[in-house]
Each structure stands twice: as C-alpha cells, then as structure tokens.
Amino acid sequence: MHKELTIENFKCFSEPTTITLGKINICLGCNSVGKSSVIQSFILIRQAFEKARLFKDTQVKKYHIQLNDIYGLQLGDSEHIKSSKVKDDITLKLDEYEYKLMSIAESPMEMEAANEYDVSVQSLREGIFSDGFYYLNAERTGPRNYQMIDSKTINHCGVYGENTMHLLNVLGTVSRVDSERCYNLDEGKTVSTLNKQVEYWMDYIIPGIEIRTDDVLELRVSKMTLRQPALDTDFLSPYNFGFGISYVLPIIVTGLIAERGSMILVENPEAHLHPKGQSHIGYFLAVMACSGIQVIVETHSEHVLNGIRIAALKNKVAPDDISINFFSLKKEGKNTRHMVEKINLDERMNLENWPEGFLDQEEEDLRTLRLLRSKGI
C-alpha cells in the first residue's frame, strides 16, 4: 500500500505538496482546488510505469507521456499545466519513486519522463505498480441500451464504464467474489457469484433493481435491460431508469473484480445518487478497501464520507487506514495559496479537526435562513 504522494509544479500545486495515503483516501473540497489533479497525478505515474515496463528490455530509458486521450486525460498543452514558468519540470513522487516530467518542444501534447527504477522490482509492489489498475472517470457512460464489445480481451469496466455490460455478461455466473467483498448485511444473500453480488450491492444502493445482460456477438454489442420487481413490468431499457444505475454499476463491478493489492481511482461516486445511495456507495468503497485494494475517491459528498465512517466503525478499521484530505484556498496577504489539510479521525470515527469550509454548508445555509427570518423576510 502506498503511503505518500508529493506533487510539485503541477497545475495548482506550485510548491511541493504531500498527501498522506491510507487504505481508503477521500479528497474533499470546493471546485478547482486540486482534487482532480491528485487523480491525474496517479494516472501520469501509472503511465510512466507502463511505458518503462513496455521498454524494459530495450535501450530506451526515456519515455513520452501522453497528456490527452489516455485514461481519459484531457490536460492539453504541457506548458499550460505547469504552475510555475520558472521551473522546467513537473515532479511527482509516490513513496520512494520520483518522476520528473519535462516538456518536449516539438511535441507540446506530450512530456518526457525517465524511469530510474527496476521495473521488475516495481511490478512486485502493490498498488499503482500492480497488474490491476482501475480508474473510473467522473463522466461515466449514462443510460444505454447497448455498449460496443471491445475487440481486445478486457478485465476492467473501462474509464467511462464502457465495458461494464460485456464484462458482467462474461464473468457474471462463472466468477466468484472474495468473501471479504461479499454483501454481508443480509443473512439471506449468500450466493458469491459476481452477478448475484452485483445484484445484492446494487439493491443496497438503489433498492429494487434487477439487471440482465446479454452479448450479441454478430453485432459486437452487449445489451442490458433492467426491471423493478415491485412494478408489474418486464425488463425494460435503461433509459427508463435514469442515470443513477448506469453511473454506479461500473463502480460496483470494478470493486468486486479488482485484483487484491491493486488500486482503484473513482471520481464523484455520488453522481446521480440520492443521499442514502451516496452513503451506501461510500460504505461499499470502504468494504472494498478493507479487502486489500487501495481506493482513492474524489468527492463533494459528505454522505459518501459518512458511509465510509460507518463501514470503518462496523468493520473495526483503524483511523490511520482512512485518509481524509481537505483541499481549499487560503488567502495570505495579496496572495492565494492552495492548501491540503488532513482531517484526523479518532477510534470512534469522530472528526478531530473541522477547518473552515469543510462540510459546513448546511450550517451556513441554516444560519442564513435564521438571519433572514429575524429580519422578517
């Protein structure tokens, strides 16, 4: 498990900024304060490692890192993502592994990185250097009647969840889920096949939904239909059920199939979910993290955080295994600086520090309502 990520000269992080990591890591804060930059840093490190692994038996020691169109990255020009014109490189350090990304004059949409480490040794490490690396973009695929089947063998849902239907159809009845990840909140739900465990967890997050998938190989498409047993209808198009199911399904499938010792990056798991569903997806992600997967979550939802805290208390997770990082802007004179503050938890999962702006909007709104009412408005 990785312990520490340091970012320098990348987007809003002009100075070296270190983020402590645990089994499950939550990035919280307002918009445009650096949360997504953390996710992108992991992706750039992963890409540098993959290039080094590809060329490990060659004389190539420096690699071109793509800034766009890989793992969903859309970073644009290399000069635009440096936070300082004085510094030439972007520095990303994960534990003892440090990567310096340099601009390439003739190819501004790429950067050059060297890998000074033994790739064979790195590959034995868990986390970002393991075979399993899973990333789900905030802009996941919405309701679709079908998805195209990738011509390559796939073992993940895809950055946008675009492989989810096919993967579930192929593995649903033949793949067994590790006992630590199996749904354990109902003694009657004990079948460990992937399709049943997906059904159990989906019912926990969005109650009363049944899923059916099928491949039409001659057309190279996977189909999905949904049904609510409470209604007297047959299986229907996903378009009849809104965005929540389509957005959360890849998260559930990814968590259940991810390799032990791997890493999952998830942006906005709460998207299109009711607050109860947001809490429950947080609970699910915490359970996955307890089973030996390092989870990185970028979220705006206090409900996701509370679901994680509930799971941690219920499953006796140590406070140090949960890393809550609050991203904010701090004014210092005429200047504004990006800050990352770790929010500590005690043994009872109480938040030990509560900086200004941290999940306090409800309190602010209630205060405003009281003030307006006192003025007779």
UniProtKB/TrEMBL annotation:
It comes from the Bacteria. Residues 239-304 form the Endonuclease GajA/Old nuclease/RecF-like AAA domain. Pfam families: AAA_15 (PF13175), DUF3696 (PF12476). InterPro entries: AAA_GajA/Old/RecF-like, Bact_Antivir_Def_Nuclease, DUF3696, P-loop_NTPase, P-loop_UCP034888. Gene3D superfamilies: P-loop containing nucleotide triphosphate hydrolases (3.40.50.300). Residues 318-369 form the DUF3696 domain. SUPFAM superfamilies: P-loop containing nucleoside triphosphate hydrolases (SSF52540). PANTHER family: ATP/GTP PHOSPHATASE (PTHR43581), EXCINUCLEASE ATPASE SUBUNIT (PTHR43581:SF2). This is DUF3696 domain-containing protein.
